[in-house]
Amino acid sequence: MxxxxxxxxxxxxxxxxxxxDVWTDFLPMxxxxxxxxxxxxxxxxxxxxxxxxxxxxxxxxxxxxxxxKFPTVYKGINLFIAGNVCPDSRLVEQITEMDxxxxxxxxxxxxxxxxxxxxxxxRRFTTEIEADAATCRLKYLFDIFMKNGEQMTADFRMLTxxxxxxxxxxSCLVIGPRLLDDxxxxxxxxxxxxxxxxxxxxxxGPIYIGKxxxxxxxxxxxxxxxxxxHSQVNMGSKIYGATTLGPYCxxxxxxxxxxxxxxxxxxxxxxLGNAVIGEWxxxxxxxxxxxxxNDYTEIKLWNYRQHRFMRTGLxxxxxIMGDHSKAGxxxxxxxxxxxxxxxxxxxxxxxxxxxxxxxxGSVAGYTDVSVAKFFDIAKRMMxxxxxxxxxxxxxxxxxxxxxxxxxx
Length: 408
What we know:
Blueprint: H1 6-10, E1 13-17, H2 20-25, H3 45-52, E2 57-61, E3 78-82, E4 85-86, H4 89-96, E5 102-106, E6 109-115, H5 117-121, E7 127-130, E8 136-137, H6 143-146, H7 148-160, E9 173-175, E10 187-189, E11 194-195, E12 199-201, E13 207-209, E14 214-215, E15 220-222, E16 225-227, E17 232-233, E18 238-240, E19 243-245, E20 250-251, E21 254-262, E22 265-266, E23 271-279, E24 282-283, E25 288-289, E26 300-303, E27 308-311, E28 320-321, E29 326-327, E30 332-333, E31 338-339, E32 344-345, E33 354-355, E34 359-362, E35 365-368, H8 371-383, H9 391-403
Parallel strand pairs: 1-2, 1-3, 5-7, 9-12, 10-13, 11-14, 12-15, 13-16, 14-17, 15-18, 16-19, 17-20, 18-21, 19-21, 20-22, 21-23, 23-28, 24-29, 25-30, 28-31, 29-32, 31-33, 32-34
Antiparallel strand pairs: 3-6, 4-8, 5-6, 26-27, 34-35
């Protein structure tokens, strides 16, 4: 990748923007965050861009009810970047060379624009250039786990280049290469992490163990894999790539190609595959989620914008669970089940493939969860991590509660 130039320094105010239809396609994950706060690979999309433009200020341009927590900061000239686009060396090079009034587009979609807020809003572009065909643009929820492996490898190279890993304990067994093809270590362990008596298979890519993470004895991990800061893998777990555990996540049992954004638990036995789990979720002991239909037919997934189950072209897709949702012990989820925000599923049997936000119940039926009850549960769970549910957060959840019916 070429060195950052003076063009980079001039682009000192970066605004990560959400197109409304694209943002809606990522519900329920986007209910509580701009698209750039989605985690894919090791980092969130915003964190990736911050690594490439370390001298720039960042803000968001997203839906109105999120703007109090994620405000937009304008200057005279701004660099607008789509929040669902991940950086790569070619795209960063294109952006650093942009002149004022230039837009980078891909299949009619605006990837980036350098100019005034008014011109961006009115799509008054002086010049349009095509983005490289390889640009990683997330279009639907399932792209998060589908593209997780490639993004994990890119993040791993960026985070570990020129740095030294903590030593791997002699109690661990490594299967596969110790170095990647560019001589970077295939396993990188951050300061304070504990990895003991673990089997690590690097045949499929890199393995990243974040600061103060714990991988307990008897665990088997196949790359690519990332455990972010303070995450924990319990004894005897079986984890297949490409799986990412966001900060403060705790997992056990069997996982395959799962992305957990952060602060969520699946601490016991049970299977989860080809899944995306939001923040502050809890999946009870013995819970299993199917990721493949018995007849091997194409999977359909609930799409909030279209108000229907849309064709995906996929054969594998598991559980999609929005923030602050829970599943009791021994729950079962059908292939490609979408769970909204603030949902509590319990009892025997398979719930329907889409459960709307702020619902509680089982196959016998669901009742609405009041905002007050939701706040009580959220406060207690967040307090376990020393985090407070703020008034700004409460206002966001009240807005979600009021608009959720529009997306059922």
